[in-house]
Amino acid sequence: MAANSLTYQYKTAPVHIKLIVLNALIFIFVRLTGFFFNIDLFTITSWFVLPDSFSEFILQPWAFISYAFIHYDFFHILFNMLWLYWFGNFVLNLFDSKRFLTIYLVGAIAGGLLYVLSYNLFPVFEGKNAYLLGASGAVTAIMVFIATYTPNTAFRIFTFTIKLWQIAAFLFVMDLVRLPASGNEGGLLAHIGGGVFGYFYAQQLAKGNDIGAWFTNFMDWISDLFTPRKKKPFKKVHRTQTTQQKTKRSTTSETKTDNQRKVDAILDKISKSGYESLTKAEKDFLFKAGKE
Fold it and tell me: Which residues lie in Low complexity bias regions (predicted)?
């Protein structure tokens, strides 16, 4: 019964909670495998971390995503998952799970690409062999995306009121400042790559351009491969529509248009004054609209 309950809770959990659970399970599995079989971390994860050498990563292209699910130690995964939970809540207040996954996974890819390009183009990294692991590039993409899309969303820490853009800007600048002498150049490059993607994605989305649509479509295609096709029930086809059907369709179309206008007005309000400025009714309406 307990196992069934946990399975049900996982299936019905928000996508960022599922990602946190998945990351935690992988971390525990890797650690226990290493302990019981006396194997070091790299030996276990070598086919999943992202190498900097072209001759290596070309043989494991999946590593551009899989590296984001491997973590070095407890504090590495702890802080990544805390940031993912916190900023993930803001994103999922406005967008659905598919959009969230697109930001997260393409953010990981962007972070991996900047890391690989930097280690192969810039002389400062010559002779340094490195491997990239950790979800921080993907998490940074989530953080910068929502801070760009709703920059004035504010919340209180103790007696201070802070806006999302201020947190994102501070952390992003800190990564740039620490890059020359951090000892973790690869990880910081992944942060920067994910953050740059999150920024441009939010900027373009606000203009009506979904630059992540290709990846969302790709995920749908993958999902369809593993989803059994159901036989379509036989439908009767009528040559003409009755007046009642036309009226019903027209009413539904008008309702959708009105709902979209209301959603747009609420999103404008969030952009100007932050999510906390919404009334309870507006929050409820936005939540229901996202479900639909």
Answer: 240-254
